[in-house]
Write a structure and sequence with these properties.
Blueprint lengths: L4 H17 L6 H8 L3 H13 L3 E3 L7 E3 L8 H9 L17 H26 L3 H10 L15
Antiparallel strand pairs: 1-2
Length: 155
């Protein structure tokens, strides 16, 4: 099953940032509409994004959603960690109860190591990009890696 929490949360954060720049109000309704996402998913994502200090919300008829800190101080890793709920990027199978060969006896710990390395590498990349970087890339229609000095081999 595909997990859309992170890309949806990223779109929400970027939408709020753009709305703030334009002096427009953001609500869960406008975010849901813009993301073509179920309103319940938007509300569920609002909770960790607010708890982790990415969003500040005001309630009521004129309520709105704002970034809790400047866009250059919010990394994509911050957003990912807020909404991933400790879910791993790659999940291993459970350990074998009765291993019958060298593979079944060892594949679980080996895969967990590889999965952990992949997760750490992904988090490192996400930490290198801020919401401000993403906004600039979107406005210029550029690949994010061109804004952070990544070489062609890192793209």
């Amino acid at each position: 099953m595909l997990d859309y929490r992170f890309p949806t949360a990223l779109q929400m954060v970027l939408s709020v940032a753009i709305s703030e720049e334009q002096g427009k109000r953001s609500t869960s309704s406008t975010l849901g509409s813009g993301a073509e996402a179920n309103p319940s998913l938007i509300r569920k994502l609002m909770v960790p994004l607010t708890r982790e200090g990415i969003f500040v919300t005001t309630l009521g008829r004129n309520g709105s959603i704002h970034l809790a800190r400047p866009a250059d101080q919010i990394t994509l890793c911050d957003i990912y960690m807020a909404v991933s709920q400790e879910k791993k990027l790659l999940n291993s199978r459970p350990d074998m109860k009765k291993p019958c060969c060298i593979v079944s006896a060892n594949v679980c710990w080996y895969f967990k190591k590889i999965a952990n390395d992949a997760e750490q590498a992904s988090l490192k990349v996400l930490a290198q990009h801020t919401v401000a970087d993403a906004l600039l890339a979107l406005k210029q229609g550029k690949d994010l890696s061109t804004l952070t000095g990544a070489t062609d081999t890192e793209k």
